[in-house]
Amino acid sequence: MFLVAINVGGVVASDQPSGAEGKTTRTTIERGLGEDKEEAKLAMAAKKEEMRRGPWMEQEDLQLVRFVRLFGERRWDYLAEVSGLNRSGKSCRLRWVNYLHPGLRHGRMTPEEEHLVLELHAKWGNRWSRIARCLPGRTDNEIKNYWRTRMRKKAQERRMSTSSSPSPSTSSSNISSSANEPPPELAMKKRDGTESVAVGSSLALGFGTNEGVMAYSMDQIWDEIAASDRVSGLSTEEHKDGARSVASPVWEHCSASPWRVDDEEFEMPTPTDGLIVSSNS
DNA sequence: AACGTGAGCAACCGCACTATT
DNA sequence: CAATAGTGCGGTTGCTCACGT
Protein backbone atom coordinates (compact mmCIF):
# COMPACT_ATOMS: atom_id res chain seq x y z
CA MET A 1 0.00 0.00 0.00
CA PHE A 2 1.36 3.31 -0.93
CA LEU A 3 0.00 6.76 -0.84
CA VAL A 4 1.25 9.41 -3.17
CA ALA A 5 0.33 13.01 -2.81
CA ILE A 6 0.97 14.64 -6.11
CA ASN A 7 2.01 18.20 -5.94
CA VAL A 8 1.09 19.65 -9.25
CA GLY A 9 3.55 22.20 -10.31
CA GLY A 10 7.14 22.70 -11.03
CA VAL A 11 7.10 20.37 -13.95
CA VAL A 12 8.17 22.07 -17.07
CA ALA A 13 7.03 20.82 -20.39
CA SER A 14 9.87 20.00 -22.62
CA ASP A 15 9.68 21.03 -26.21
CA GLN A 16 10.82 17.77 -27.53
CA PRO A 17 9.02 16.77 -30.66
CA SER A 18 6.10 14.70 -29.72
CA GLY A 19 3.61 14.22 -32.42
CA ALA A 20 0.21 13.16 -31.38
CA GLU A 21 -0.61 9.69 -32.37
CA GLY A 22 -2.35 9.72 -35.68
CA LYS A 23 -5.58 7.96 -35.89
CA THR A 24 -4.64 4.37 -35.91
CA THR A 25 -8.03 3.09 -36.71
CA ARG A 26 -9.11 1.64 -39.97
CA THR A 27 -11.70 4.37 -40.21
CA THR A 28 -9.21 7.09 -40.78
CA ILE A 29 -6.44 5.22 -42.42
CA GLU A 30 -8.52 3.56 -45.03
CA ARG A 31 -11.16 6.16 -45.62
CA GLY A 32 -9.25 9.35 -45.64
CA LEU A 33 -6.01 8.93 -47.40
CA GLY A 34 -6.67 7.89 -50.92
CA GLU A 35 -3.54 7.33 -52.95
CA ASP A 36 -1.18 8.41 -50.21
CA LYS A 37 -2.55 5.67 -48.09
CA GLU A 38 0.59 3.62 -47.95
CA GLU A 39 2.83 6.59 -47.34
CA ALA A 40 0.60 7.84 -44.61
CA LYS A 41 0.54 4.43 -43.07
CA LEU A 42 4.30 4.35 -43.02
CA ALA A 43 4.54 7.82 -41.57
CA MET A 44 2.06 6.89 -38.93
CA ALA A 45 3.95 3.76 -38.09
CA ALA A 46 7.16 5.76 -37.85
CA LYS A 47 5.54 8.23 -35.49
CA LYS A 48 4.22 5.40 -33.44
CA GLU A 49 7.71 4.00 -33.24
CA GLU A 50 8.90 7.21 -31.67
CA MET A 51 6.20 7.16 -29.04
CA ARG A 52 7.13 6.10 -25.59
CA ARG A 53 5.32 2.99 -24.48
CA GLY A 54 5.25 0.74 -21.51
CA PRO A 55 5.11 1.59 -17.85
CA TRP A 56 4.81 5.21 -16.81
CA MET A 57 7.51 6.93 -14.83
CA GLU A 58 6.64 9.04 -11.83
CA GLN A 59 7.79 12.12 -13.66
CA GLU A 60 5.48 11.36 -16.53
CA ASP A 61 2.60 10.97 -14.14
CA LEU A 62 3.32 14.34 -12.62
CA GLN A 63 3.49 15.91 -15.99
CA LEU A 64 0.28 14.33 -17.13
CA VAL A 65 -1.57 15.40 -14.01
CA ARG A 66 -0.36 18.91 -14.45
CA PHE A 67 -1.52 19.15 -18.03
CA VAL A 68 -4.82 17.49 -17.36
CA ARG A 69 -5.47 20.13 -14.76
CA LEU A 70 -4.56 22.76 -17.28
CA PHE A 71 -6.53 21.49 -20.22
CA GLY A 72 -9.11 19.23 -18.72
CA GLU A 73 -9.94 15.65 -19.53
CA ARG A 74 -10.46 16.22 -23.21
CA ARG A 75 -8.44 16.52 -26.37
CA TRP A 76 -6.04 13.84 -25.32
CA ASP A 77 -4.03 13.94 -28.50
CA TYR A 78 -3.51 17.64 -28.11
CA LEU A 79 -2.71 17.26 -24.46
CA ALA A 80 -0.22 14.55 -25.22
CA GLU A 81 1.44 16.77 -27.76
CA VAL A 82 1.76 19.95 -25.73
CA SER A 83 2.78 18.12 -22.60
CA GLY A 84 5.86 16.82 -24.33
CA LEU A 85 5.24 13.42 -22.88
CA ASN A 86 5.91 11.68 -26.15
CA ARG A 87 3.00 9.42 -25.44
CA SER A 88 -0.09 8.88 -27.49
CA GLY A 89 -3.24 10.64 -26.46
CA LYS A 90 -4.79 7.30 -25.95
CA SER A 91 -2.06 6.24 -23.63
CA CYS A 92 -2.39 9.45 -21.64
CA ARG A 93 -6.10 9.06 -21.32
CA LEU A 94 -5.75 5.49 -20.19
CA ARG A 95 -3.17 6.39 -17.60
CA TRP A 96 -5.37 9.13 -16.27
CA VAL A 97 -8.57 7.16 -16.25
CA ASN A 98 -7.13 3.99 -14.79
CA TYR A 99 -4.57 5.30 -12.40
CA LEU A 100 -4.24 9.01 -11.86
CA HIS A 101 -7.83 10.10 -11.69
CA PRO A 102 -8.62 11.51 -8.26
CA GLY A 103 -11.00 9.40 -6.29
CA LEU A 104 -9.81 6.12 -7.63
CA ARG A 105 -9.55 3.27 -5.22
CA HIS A 106 -6.91 0.68 -5.63
CA GLY A 107 -6.33 -2.57 -3.91
CA ARG A 108 -8.51 -5.51 -3.17
CA MET A 109 -12.19 -5.47 -3.82
CA THR A 110 -14.33 -5.51 -0.78
CA PRO A 111 -16.85 -8.33 -0.42
CA GLU A 112 -19.60 -5.82 -1.13
CA GLU A 113 -17.92 -4.78 -4.32
CA GLU A 114 -17.37 -8.37 -5.34
CA HIS A 115 -21.00 -9.10 -4.80
CA LEU A 116 -22.02 -6.09 -6.80
CA VAL A 117 -19.76 -7.05 -9.66
CA LEU A 118 -21.28 -10.50 -9.72
CA GLU A 119 -24.76 -9.16 -9.83
CA LEU A 120 -24.11 -6.49 -12.39
CA HIS A 121 -22.23 -8.87 -14.61
CA ALA A 122 -25.15 -11.22 -14.47
CA LYS A 123 -27.31 -8.33 -15.50
CA TRP A 124 -25.19 -6.69 -18.16
CA GLY A 125 -22.55 -9.13 -19.19
CA ASN A 126 -19.15 -7.76 -20.11
CA ARG A 127 -20.17 -4.14 -20.02
CA TRP A 128 -17.28 -3.28 -17.79
CA SER A 129 -17.51 0.46 -18.00
CA ARG A 130 -21.16 0.29 -17.17
CA ILE A 131 -20.48 -1.93 -14.20
CA ALA A 132 -17.65 0.33 -13.12
CA ARG A 133 -20.02 3.26 -12.87
CA CYS A 134 -21.77 1.47 -10.09
CA LEU A 135 -18.57 0.98 -8.16
CA PRO A 136 -17.26 4.41 -7.27
CA GLY A 137 -13.53 4.60 -7.54
CA ARG A 138 -13.20 1.42 -9.53
CA THR A 139 -12.30 1.38 -13.18
CA ASP A 140 -13.60 -0.84 -15.90
CA ASN A 141 -10.11 -2.19 -16.36
CA GLU A 142 -9.83 -3.11 -12.73
CA ILE A 143 -13.16 -4.85 -12.70
CA LYS A 144 -12.37 -6.62 -15.92
CA ASN A 145 -9.13 -7.88 -14.48
CA TYR A 146 -10.80 -8.94 -11.28
CA TRP A 147 -13.42 -10.82 -13.20
CA ARG A 148 -10.92 -12.54 -15.41
CA THR A 149 -8.92 -13.67 -12.44
CA ARG A 150 -12.00 -14.94 -10.70
CA MET A 151 -13.16 -16.75 -13.79
CA ARG A 152 -9.80 -18.31 -14.32
CA LYS A 153 -9.94 -19.71 -10.84
CA LYS A 154 -13.45 -20.95 -11.36
CA ALA A 155 -12.49 -22.52 -14.65
CA GLN A 156 -9.63 -24.32 -13.02
CA GLU A 157 -11.79 -25.58 -10.23
CA ARG A 158 -14.31 -26.72 -12.77
CA ARG A 159 -11.68 -28.47 -14.82
CA MET A 160 -10.51 -30.25 -11.73
CA SER A 161 -13.96 -31.40 -10.88
CA THR A 162 -14.78 -32.47 -14.40
CA SER A 163 -11.49 -34.12 -15.14
CA SER A 164 -12.73 -37.20 -13.38
CA SER A 165 -15.67 -37.47 -15.72
CA PRO A 166 -15.00 -38.39 -19.37
CA SER A 167 -17.05 -35.62 -20.93
CA PRO A 168 -16.62 -31.94 -20.28
CA SER A 169 -20.16 -31.31 -21.32
CA THR A 170 -22.13 -29.62 -18.68
CA SER A 171 -25.36 -29.34 -16.94
CA SER A 172 -26.41 -26.32 -18.88
CA SER A 173 -25.19 -28.04 -22.04
CA ASN A 174 -25.57 -24.97 -24.12
CA ILE A 175 -22.18 -25.27 -25.69
CA SER A 176 -22.80 -25.43 -29.34
CA SER A 177 -21.21 -28.21 -31.25
CA SER A 178 -20.70 -25.84 -34.13
CA ALA A 179 -17.71 -23.59 -33.74
CA ASN A 180 -19.15 -21.12 -36.18
CA GLU A 181 -22.45 -20.78 -34.53
CA PRO A 182 -22.25 -20.10 -30.87
CA PRO A 183 -25.32 -20.27 -28.74
CA PRO A 184 -27.27 -17.05 -28.59
CA GLU A 185 -26.21 -16.28 -25.06
CA LEU A 186 -22.65 -16.04 -26.26
CA ALA A 187 -23.45 -13.34 -28.73
CA MET A 188 -22.45 -9.93 -27.51
CA LYS A 189 -24.74 -7.03 -28.00
CA LYS A 190 -23.17 -4.16 -29.82
CA ARG A 191 -24.11 -0.66 -28.99
CA ASP A 192 -26.10 -0.30 -32.14
CA GLY A 193 -28.20 -3.22 -31.15
CA THR A 194 -26.73 -5.67 -33.60
CA GLU A 195 -25.09 -8.75 -32.33
CA SER A 196 -21.54 -9.80 -32.57
CA VAL A 197 -19.84 -12.85 -31.34
CA ALA A 198 -17.06 -12.92 -28.85
CA VAL A 199 -14.75 -14.81 -31.05
CA GLY A 200 -12.43 -17.49 -29.97
CA SER A 201 -9.87 -15.38 -28.22
CA SER A 202 -6.74 -16.61 -26.67
CA LEU A 203 -8.72 -17.16 -23.55
CA ALA A 204 -10.27 -20.22 -24.96
CA LEU A 205 -9.37 -23.01 -22.67
CA GLY A 206 -8.66 -26.35 -24.11
CA PHE A 207 -10.51 -29.18 -22.58
CA GLY A 208 -9.66 -32.66 -23.61
CA THR A 209 -7.38 -33.72 -26.35
CA ASN A 210 -6.22 -32.12 -29.49
CA GLU A 211 -8.34 -34.39 -31.58
CA GLY A 212 -11.76 -33.12 -30.77
CA VAL A 213 -10.52 -30.42 -28.54
CA MET A 214 -13.31 -28.89 -26.62
CA ALA A 215 -12.48 -25.26 -27.10
CA TYR A 216 -14.01 -23.64 -24.09
CA SER A 217 -14.29 -19.92 -24.43
CA MET A 218 -14.41 -17.76 -21.35
CA ASP A 219 -17.92 -16.81 -22.34
CA GLN A 220 -18.98 -20.36 -22.19
CA ILE A 221 -17.43 -20.77 -18.82
CA TRP A 222 -19.06 -17.61 -17.60
CA ASP A 223 -22.33 -18.84 -18.82
CA GLU A 224 -21.92 -22.04 -16.97
CA ILE A 225 -20.93 -20.27 -13.85
CA ALA A 226 -23.93 -18.05 -14.15
CA ALA A 227 -25.98 -21.17 -14.42
CA SER A 228 -24.46 -22.64 -11.31
CA ASP A 229 -24.93 -19.34 -9.53
CA ARG A 230 -28.54 -19.53 -10.48
CA VAL A 231 -28.72 -22.90 -8.84
CA SER A 232 -27.04 -21.56 -5.77
CA GLY A 233 -29.63 -18.94 -5.27
CA LEU A 234 -29.24 -15.95 -7.56
CA SER A 235 -32.40 -15.35 -9.47
CA THR A 236 -31.55 -14.58 -13.01
CA GLU A 237 -33.89 -13.52 -15.70
CA GLU A 238 -33.36 -13.03 -19.37
CA HIS A 239 -33.52 -9.51 -20.61
CA LYS A 240 -35.18 -8.70 -23.83
CA ASP A 241 -31.90 -7.41 -25.17
CA GLY A 242 -30.22 -10.68 -24.43
CA ALA A 243 -28.47 -9.56 -21.29
CA ARG A 244 -29.15 -11.43 -18.15
CA SER A 245 -30.35 -9.66 -15.13
CA VAL A 246 -30.65 -10.33 -11.51
CA ALA A 247 -33.32 -8.93 -9.37
CA SER A 248 -31.25 -7.31 -6.75
CA PRO A 249 -31.68 -4.91 -3.90
CA VAL A 250 -28.09 -3.93 -4.42
CA TRP A 251 -28.88 -2.90 -7.93
CA GLU A 252 -31.79 -0.84 -6.76
CA HIS A 253 -29.44 0.95 -4.48
CA CYS A 254 -27.05 1.41 -7.34
CA SER A 255 -29.53 2.89 -9.73
CA ALA A 256 -30.60 5.33 -7.12
CA SER A 257 -27.08 6.45 -6.50
CA PRO A 258 -25.56 9.59 -7.94
CA TRP A 259 -23.37 7.34 -10.02
CA ARG A 260 -25.51 7.41 -13.05
CA VAL A 261 -25.46 4.55 -15.44
CA ASP A 262 -26.43 4.12 -19.02
CA ASP A 263 -25.69 6.99 -21.29
CA GLU A 264 -25.84 9.65 -18.70
CA GLU A 265 -22.76 11.42 -17.54
CA PHE A 266 -21.49 10.77 -14.10
CA GLU A 267 -19.09 12.74 -12.05
CA MET A 268 -16.26 11.61 -9.95
CA PRO A 269 -15.87 13.31 -6.65
CA THR A 270 -12.93 15.62 -6.92
CA PRO A 271 -10.70 16.35 -4.02
CA THR A 272 -10.42 19.95 -3.09
CA ASP A 273 -6.75 19.99 -2.50
CA GLY A 274 -4.29 18.36 -4.83
CA LEU A 275 -4.49 14.84 -5.97
CA ILE A 276 -4.33 11.79 -3.86
CA VAL A 277 -3.58 8.54 -5.46
CA SER A 278 -3.56 5.57 -3.24
CA SER A 279 -2.85 1.99 -3.84
CA ASN A 280 -2.67 -1.16 -1.90
CA SER A 281 -0.48 -2.94 -4.29
C1' DA B 1 19.29 -20.09 -3.09
C1' DA B 2 17.54 -21.02 -7.58
C1' DC B 3 13.95 -21.98 -10.41
C1' DG B 4 9.21 -22.51 -12.15
C1' DT B 5 4.55 -21.14 -12.05
C1' DG B 6 0.52 -18.52 -11.68
C1' DA B 7 -2.09 -14.42 -10.04
C1' DG B 8 -2.63 -9.68 -10.48
C1' DC B 9 -2.51 -5.74 -12.96
C1' DA B 10 -0.95 -1.96 -16.16
C1' DA B 11 -0.90 -1.01 -20.69
C1' DC B 12 -1.84 -1.69 -25.51
C1' DC B 13 -4.77 -2.78 -29.62
C1' DG B 14 -8.48 -2.44 -32.64
C1' DC B 15 -13.11 -1.44 -33.41
C1' DA B 16 -17.19 1.38 -32.93
C1' DC B 17 -19.39 5.43 -31.84
C1' DT B 18 -19.75 10.52 -31.46
C1' DA B 19 -18.41 15.20 -32.31
C1' DT B 20 -16.53 18.51 -35.22
C1' DT B 21 -15.21 20.62 -39.50
C1' DC C 1 -23.75 15.37 -45.72
C1' DA C 2 -19.28 13.38 -45.92
C1' DA C 3 -14.76 13.27 -44.06
C1' DT C 4 -11.99 13.52 -40.26
C1' DA C 5 -10.70 13.77 -35.43
C1' DG C 6 -11.55 12.46 -30.83
C1' DT C 7 -13.16 9.34 -27.44
C1' DG C 8 -14.99 5.08 -25.26
C1' DC C 9 -14.94 0.38 -24.74
C1' DG C 10 -13.99 -4.62 -24.69
C1' DG C 11 -10.46 -7.82 -25.52
C1' DT C 12 -5.69 -9.11 -25.16
C1' DT C 13 -0.85 -9.07 -23.93
C1' DG C 14 3.05 -9.11 -21.24
C1' DC C 15 5.47 -7.75 -17.08
C1' DT C 16 6.17 -8.20 -12.08
C1' DC C 17 6.04 -10.34 -7.91
C1' DA C 18 4.69 -13.71 -4.53
C1' DC C 19 4.73 -18.33 -3.57
C1' DG C 20 5.69 -23.18 -3.82
C1' DT C 21 9.08 -26.78 -4.82
TrEMBL record:
Residues annotated as domain Myb-like: 48-100, 101-151
Compositional bias annotation for Low complexity: 161-180
Domain HTH myb-type: 48-100, 101-155
GO molecular function, one term: sequence-specific DNA binding
Domain of life: Eukaryota
Alphabetically ordered keywords of this record: DNA-binding, Nucleus, Repeat, Transcription, Transcription regulation
Residue segments, region Disordered: 146-194, 262-281
Cross-referenced Pfam families: Myb_DNA-binding
Physiological role: Transcription factor.
Protein name per its UniProtKB record: Myb-related protein
Taxonomic lineage from the root: Eukaryota, Viridiplantae, Streptophyta, Embryophyta, Tracheophyta
